[in-house]
Design a protein that fits this description.
Length: 488
């Protein structure tokens, strides 16, 4: 159930989109849909401004398909998961470069075919590994940064200035100063931030994040980042005054932003919430006589996590959203701006897996499979009660039994599942694979119980390479000082 909009206008909620059928394949895959025939962008590494989009060319993407089974062995790309476990140990995050490129190309093409002046900014908070981010920015994306340190990550990739949108919230004075020094686009989460920014300098361009009064998430209300219960964004009743204040302070270049939700697979929701934003923006433009250089409709493009869950009709969502966008531009007499989006999960979410090992099996009140994939490695199941598919190398075609599967932490919430059908003959030493771990996985990992952060590996076809080393004991003690009076 969604809260009623505030002053953004009364509007009925859209109907849920119809499920689309998944493509069939002789090779079993762990994904919910095949990515063959999706356009794949060029693979050049040169970083390019998001305001000069790369051409998208078609290619049959079999090499970018989801994890597959060949002769009962699990493969990521063309690499057996057992080979990854031998080479790098477990637990290890694994990302498929070709999958990332195919996902990026599909999102870009879906919107750019409808609105050529369309640009992507990668929300680096979802996966901040620089190798992964370099793939996405190499395809032409800018960076959406939630903090100063993410601005610095963008600089490591060669991006700065207006190729970075700074979307932090409740900023400190230090955040503001460093943001001004970097020349990034300030996307202000509240009108009260603007006078504070002006104390330290005058940005060339100002953007405000609008909370349109609605939010949605397939994950749960706790990650819904818009609507009355969200901490983000300017209330619709305050948006006009925010832009008036900026204009009276001498700002002449403007953008506007919203975040519609998180992991939304209902294609009808996106044009609905775009309409809400455009009604707010249109009234601001008409009243103040200002033009918006860009309108950022956020991210929220979802992926299916559960078996049988229908994938987002991406092309349908893009087509309908742009139809509403164009209609509202005409209705309010707005100059056509750049259309911006900042997805991440739709690009990297289903391009990441965790490879782990079964270390022990406990048969007591129930049967519990103990692995080295604890919730410090992927916290989403413990934090959000999120679902992730779990596969066992070499045993996916055998009999099934209802089992529990857990990690190694001294917490009883460190369960992946308590009662799910898994291979009945699972044994110590087996390799397990957790899917859909490319977004909000390693980026939310942490150390606990002396269990450290895992390694990260990039697969490209049959090749694989380490892109982040596994933490060691020295990482636990780095920067720690014991005062002399406490030493024995």
């Amino acid at each position: 159930m969604h809260p009623r909009p505030t002053s953004a206008g009364s509007r009925s909620m859209p109907r849920t989109c119809r499920p689309s059928s998944a493509a069939s394949s002789r090779t079993r895959t762990s994904g919910s849909s095949c990515c063959e025939r999706r356009p794949v962008g060029p693979r050049g590494r040169r970083i390019q401004s998001p305001f000069r989009p790369r051409a998208v060319r078609g290619r049959c993407g079999r090499s970018a398909a989801a994890m597959k089974t060949i002769d009962n062995a699990l493969y990521i790309g063309d690499v057996p998961v057992r080979q990854i476990a031998r080479a790098y140990g477990t637990p290890t995050y694994v990302y498929d470069e070709q999958r990332i490129r195919a996902n990026y190309a599909r999102v870009a093409a879906a919107f750019r075919t409808q609105y050529p002046d369309f640009h992507l900014y990668y929300a680096i908070k979802a996966n901040d590994n620089l190798a992964v981010a370099a793939i996405v920015t190499g395809e032409g994306a800018g960076i959406d940064a939630a903090s100063v340190n993410e601005i610095l990550l963008a600089k490591e990739l060669g991006l700065d200035g207006e190729r970075v949108i700074f979307s932090g919230n409740f900023l400190s004075d230090e955040d503001i100063v460093l943001g001004l020094e970097s020349g990034v686009i300030f996307n202000l989460d509240d009108a009260s931030l603007f006078p504070r920014v002006m104390r330290f300098g005058k940005p060339d361009l100002i953007c405000f994040r609008v909370n349109p009064g609605y939010g949605k998430s397939n994950v749960g209300d706790f990650v819904t980042n818009a609507g009355p219960n969200a901490k983000f964004g300017v209330h619709p009743d305050q948006v006009l005054d925010a832009y008036r204040m900026a204009r009276e302070a001498g700002i002449r270049r403007f953008g506007v932003h919203m975040m519609p939700g998180s992991c939304v697979t209902d294609a009808e929701y996106f044009p609905f919430v775009v309409g809400l934003l455009m009604d707010i923006v249109g009234k601001v433009g008409a009243t103040l006589g200002i033009d918006f250089e860009f309108i950022d409709i956020g991210g929220g493009l979802g992926i299916p996590y559960r078996p049988g869950e229908a994938p987002l009709d991406l092309e349908g969502a893009a087509r309908k959203s742009v139809e509403v966008f164009r209609s509202k531009l005409g209705e309010y007499g707005l100059k056509p701006p750049r259309l911006v989006m900042e997805p991440a999960r739709a690009i990297v979410g289903d391009a990441g897996w965790i490879v782990g090992t079964v270390h022990s099996i406990k048969r007591g009140y129930s049967t519990i499979i103990g692995t080295d994939v604890s919730f410090n490695v992927l916290v989403r199941p413990a934090l959000y009660d999120a679902y992730h598919g779990i596969y066992v190398d070499g045993k996916e075609h055998g009999p099934r039994a209802r089992l529990g599967l857990c990690g190694q932490l001294c917490e009883n919430t460190d369960f992946w599942v308590r009662d799910r059908e898994l291979p009945a003959d699972i044994a110590e030493g087996d390799i397990v694979v957790v899917e859909n771990a490319g977004a909000y996985g390693y980026a939310m990992s942490f150390r606990y119980n002396g269990r450290l952060r895992p390694a990260e590996v990039l697969v490209n076809g049959a090749s694989h390479e380490l892109i982040r080393a596994r933490e060691g004991f020295e990482d636990m003690t780095r920067g720690v000082r014991i005062p002399a009076r406490l030493r024995k």
